Amino acid sequence: MLLYRSISRLALKGQSNINALTRSNLCTDALSSSPATAVSVKTVQEKWTSRFQTENVPEATTSIANILAHVLQLPCLGDVDKNKDAVLSDAQLAKIEELCECRIARMPVQYIIREWDFRDMTLKMVPPVFIPRPETEELVELILQQIDTQKEFSFLEIGCGSGAITLSLLKQVPKATAIALDQSKLACELTLENAKRYDFSEKLRIFKHKLVDKLPDELAGHRFDMIVSNPPYVPSGQLQRLDPEVKVYEDLRALDGGPDGLTVIKAILTIASDHLADEGILWLEVDTSHPPLIAGYLEEHGERLGLRYVSSYKDLFRKERFVEIVKV
Prior knowledge:
The chain is of the alpha/beta class. The protein has helices at about 20-30, 40-55, 60-70, 80, 90-105, 110-115, 135-145, 165-170, 185-195, 245, 265-275, 290-305; strands at about 40, 85-90, 115-120, 120-125, 155-160, 175-180, 205-210, 225-230, 275-285, 305-315, 320-325. It has 2 domains: about 40-105; about 130-325, Rossmann fold (3-Layer(aba) Sandwich). The strands form 3 sheets. The protein has a 7-stranded mixed β-sheet with strand order 7-6-5-8-9-11-10, with helices on both faces. The longest helix has 16 residues, at about 290-305. The chain is elongated.
């Protein structure tokens, strides 16, 4: 499902061989000829809502609203309707046409406007780095509810993507320090850029590292108060069923969890065993089928790993989505 920005705090939230960056270049070439003047925001909004619906583009109304807000440099979507009678310049119309053609090509809005809101932060987005979902905002909230935000706190994020989780925690926990890992060079660079945007780069170390079952050598012996991850958890056989916005444009390495979706999760459990401090917590965002499987795995291997399954938690759709595990 396509995600979109709302006025309120909570955002409602084969073919895959096409390289996301190449697709981006193709869609940005689809400029229309010089448009006529005296065209209002309302006219353009109605035109593209209808076109998106005809082309079966998901979230047609919010797609064009986000594009208009971006081009007009409006702070929130509600301001689009407030400016519905404004006349667009030829340059604005051309830009809107360009970005809407990208949406017709099923590029996610986040990549089209090159930024997205996560909690109370606006983060830069670039394809094909994984786009943070609204459910992950709930994971951050769960963590903040269970830690003392005024104490010193060290944590590791595995698979940082745009840096959404790490930077949200650093913003809310003044004495926190973090290490973030990702196998994607682009993701590491994007996390650093977003960290600099909010002046958190001094509190954060970033490593490009392909996860197997250990951390980079520089972190040998390091212990954390918490490890958090929204890891690849989609079973490999289900990747081709994903929406085009995901399987064409996003990095499938950030999604592919192996045959049962648990390959990376099991590697993270091994890392948590080695790198969590006593009574440290591991938080995972997982597929809704995974909590009982993870609980069963720890029943069998928990004593060896020194880990105990604590609980699972539901997301806003009432699906079991988050797992809490403690180092014992």
